[in-house]
Amino acid sequence: MKTFVVANQKGGVGKTTTVMNLGAALAIKGKKTLLIDLDPQANLSSGLGFTQQFDKDSWNSTDEAPYKSVYDVLIDKEPLSSVFVATSTANLFLVPSHLSLAGAEIEMVNIISRETLLKKAIEGMSEEFDYVIIDCPPSLGLLTINALCAADKLLIPIQCEYFALEGLGQLIETTKLIKGVNANLKIGGVILTMFDSRTKLSESVVKDVKDFFKDVAFKSIVPRNVRLSESPSHGKTIFQYDDKSTGAMAYKKLANEFIKRFS
Ligand SMILES: Nc1ncnc2c1ncn2[C@@H]1O[C@H](COP(=O)(O)OP(=O)(O)OP(=O)(O)O)[C@@H](O)[C@H]1O
Ligand SMILES: [Mg+2]
Question: Domain-by-domain residue ranges, the chain?
């Protein structure tokens, strides 16, 4: 079982879209895959159709989540096995997030070994998956640190836009610091996202990233594709929403490259 963390503290670079659709492509190819939503925004969960109940009058999330979440794992020591759910894609499973996770970073401060709560939960799981893929919030707080500690490989999505490489230095520094707690963590790959063939800028970001990361950068590049941005609002993966789209094809190619690299 290999564990991956998808992280970049820059917001909106395609972390969640990548976890959801790379995960779905791997599952379709027969790889039993567990996705963990470690972001209080819960975009991955809602994109897969696991939506929180909201109280429309106050715009607050109602107290009771309709399902257990990663919050229960981190704070209440609930085993992962009793929290993950099957999604509508065969072989694809999800540990959902919940708004309550927003408070978890503060609650975790007083817990001993707070950096390794997720790692222990994954190690304690009796089910076997081919891949576990963790989606992170856009920050380098305790939640992301838990993901970095739990994973073998770091995957970094980079949006093909100006300032793309900004903040990456910080992520790489953090990765080095994490080696104190998780000596295994290596950069597994860099994924270029939202490529726009009409702009010179996209081309130059691709060149910079390939020069900097060399073979670590995946050859499959994800294009900007409106179908990818529409599918989560229907609670569907790109393969359920529009299997023929350029976005779907890109994530299928990425999954092939991923399986070759990590088998
Ligand atoms: N290849 C793409 N083409 C078009 N739109 C995309 C693509 N990838 C992501 N998007 C859209 O861009 C926005 C940001 O993507 P996403 O939520 O995956 O990023 P993120 O890094 O997870 O963001 P956050 O840091 O807030 O968690 C979303 O609205 C998403 O639907
Ligand atoms: Mg996200």
Answer: 2-262
